[in-house]
C-alpha cells in the first residue's frame, strides 16, 4: 500500500483527453457503489468519520464493482477526498449547521492526499472479477501523516475514485463519486444516532460492544463477591490479608482500573464513553 501527497492537476486534463479520444474499449465502463443502502442510512442523518493523529479506518468501507474495462489493459485505482462544500460545520442542538468558511485554499477545496489501491497497477480483468475494496484507507488530522489521508475536522468530504490506464502515457479513464458516501470528519462522534449505526452494522464495533457487556457483568460479580477489589485501600493490604490473592495474585492500583483481559479495541480508553469511535 502506498500513498502520496497530491499532484492532481493531471487528473482533470487527462480525463478530458480520455473523453475526447472516446476509447471504444471503455465506452461501456460502469462503476457501482456496493452497500449503497447502508451508505444511505448514514447519509440520511449526516455521516461522520473519525480522524485521529495515528489514522482511523473508514466505516462503512468504500467498495465498488467495475465493468467495461479492457481486460488486457493495465489500470491503477486511486482514491481522493475532496471537500463537498466550502463550509466548516458544527453540531448544535442535535443537527449539523454551517459555521463559517472552510479552512484551506479556495473555499476549502484542497486535497488531503491520494490513496493508491495496493493492487495497482493491474489488469482490467483483475479489477472486474470482484468488488474493489478500500478497507485500508486511514484518515488522519495530522499534516504529513505518513502516507495517510489528511482531512480537516468538522469539514465535509466526498471520496472520489480515479481509474487511470497505465501505459506509455497515463490516461485517466474516469473519475467517479457517490453523494451517499459524503461525511463530516470528526475527532469524536457528535450524533448519538451515528454511534448507534456504527455499533449495529460494524462487526468490529459489535465485538467491542460484546466485550463491554462482558465487562459490565464481570464488574457486577466482582464487586459483589470480592469487594476488596473495589476498595481504595485494597492494594495496601499484604497478599496474606487479601481475600482475592488466591484467585488473582497480588493486586496493584493499576490493575484495578483495567477491564477483564486488559481489553482494548481500536486504541480507545475504557470504559467507553458516549462518543467512542470505531
UniProtKB/TrEMBL annotation:
The keyword DNA-binding applies. Pfam families: T-box (PF00907). It is found in: Nucleus. One of its GO terms (cellular component) is nucleus. PROSITE patterns: TBOX_1 (PS01283), TBOX_2 (PS01264), TBOX_3 (PS50252). It comes from the Eukaryota. Residues 1-27, 258-278 are annotated as: Disordered. One of its GO terms (molecular function) is RNA polymerase II cis-regulatory region sequence-specific DNA binding. InterPro entries: p53-like_TF_DNA-bd_sf (IPR008967), T-box_DNA-bd (IPR046360), T-box_sf (IPR036960), TF_Brachyury (IPR002070), TF_T-box (IPR001699), TF_T-box_CS (IPR018186). Residues 17-27 have a biased composition (Basic and acidic residues). SUPFAM superfamilies: p53-like transcription factors. One of its GO terms (biological process) is cell fate specification. Keywords: DNA-binding, Nucleus, Transcription, Transcription regulation. This is T-box-containing protein TBXT-like. Residues 1-15 have a biased composition (Polar residues). The keyword Nucleus applies. Residues 33-210 form the T-box domain.
